[in-house]
Write a structure and sequence with these properties.
By secondary structure, the chain is of the alpha+beta class. 21% of the residues lie in helices and 29% in strands. The protein starts with 6 loop residues before the first helix and ends with a strand.
Length: 310
């Protein structure tokens, strides 16, 4: 969330802002692809993380934390406990998109959408253990208040997940987004919520609908800036036809969360069908053994089990 008090600073320190790289920018050379879709009955698990890192391009932010985030993720990768796919928000500062990939050592990643005239970049970053075989992104046209000074939008990354002996694969699409925040000194809550409702429609019409009717399961992660009690939450779930992973774990209290990981199954895909089952819901970067507290958000992690039906 970009506060009004930060506007002048955003422009004063705009030389810190990194223009996002080309689409599907990978952090490592591509590896050979598996050659065929997984056979029916194939089962595999993977973990997804969404995390708003609060990487505003301001001088009073601890920009050394990006190395710490990267190193912590790398340690977990070595231990075999790390998320295989990560979606981050508010990675506005150039150090964040440099240091987190560098020190986490994920082999693949994508940055974008990039900055536009009079707007900083989107702050969106994807990291992946698996090759990104297709990539797309979009800017939200609707906005309200100080959020209009950033290029908020959506990333779509199709990852190819090797399964079995590595000669087979299942494709998975990750959507990473950051939606309009609630009212600030420039906008009122009704204005912000109207902008967010418009963004939900844009998300659906401009980028999601192409995946919703495919044979590829989808994960929709990010900082949505709505709570479960708001109409926006119900609008998003009904329009997209997605499930909220968090509702499968009622032991977690989420009255104030704005960070979610939704999922979309493909039980009626035209070519293949893949069932998705949430297995575990955890917090990270919360000051516990799951990582240092480095933002005004915590990380949300969900373990999933994917079953190929045909």
């Amino acid at each position: 969330m970009i506060k009004l008090i930060a506007l002048l600073a955003l422009f004063t320190f705009s030389h810190f802002v990194h223009a996002m790289g080309k689409k599907n920018e990978s952090f490592a050379p591509a590896k050979p692809n598996p050659i065929r879709w997984a056979r029916p009955g194939t089962v595999f698990d993977l973990k997804i993380l969404t995390y708003n890192i609060k990487g505003l391009p301001l001088p009073n932010i601890d920009h050394g934390k990006y190395e710490r985030i990267g190193r912590f993720l790398h340690r977990r990768r070595l231990e075999g406990t790390a998320p295989q796919i990560v979606g981050m928000q508010e990675a506005f500062h150039s150090n964040s998109t440099r240091d987190i990939p560098k020190f986490s050592k994920y082999p693949y990643g994508a940055k974008g959408p990039k900055s536009r005239p009079f707007r900083i970049n989107s702050g969106l970053l994807i990291l992946s253990e698996y090759k990104i075989v297709d990539y797309d992104e979009m800017y939200y046209q609707a906005c309200a208040g100080t959020d209009c000074f950033s290029s908020k939008g959506v990333q779509r990354a199709r990852t190819r997940v090797p399964v079995g002996d590595g000669t087979e694969y299942v494709d998975l699409e990750l959507f990473n987004t950051h939606m309009n925040a609630d009212g600030d000194a420039v906008s009122t809550d009704p204005q912000s919520r109207a902008a967010r409702a418009a963004q939900i429609q844009e998300f659906h019409d401009d980028i999601f609908v192409r995946s919703a009717f495919s044979s590829v399961p989808s994960i929709l992660a990010g900082d949505f800036n709505f709570k479960t009690t708001m109409p926006d939450y119900q609008l998003f779930r009904s329009l997209m036809g997605v499930d909220d992973s968090g509702v499968y774990f009622p032991g977690f209290s989420r009255p104030n969360t704005v960070d979610y990981i939704f999922f979309h199954q493909t039980p009626n895909g035209p070519d293949h069908r893949v069932a998705v089952q949430p297995l575990r819901y955890t917090h990270s970067f919360d000051g516990s053994e799951m990582g240092p507290e480095l933002s005004d958000h915590i990380g949300i992690e969900v373990d999933y089990r994917f079953t190929v039906l045909n």
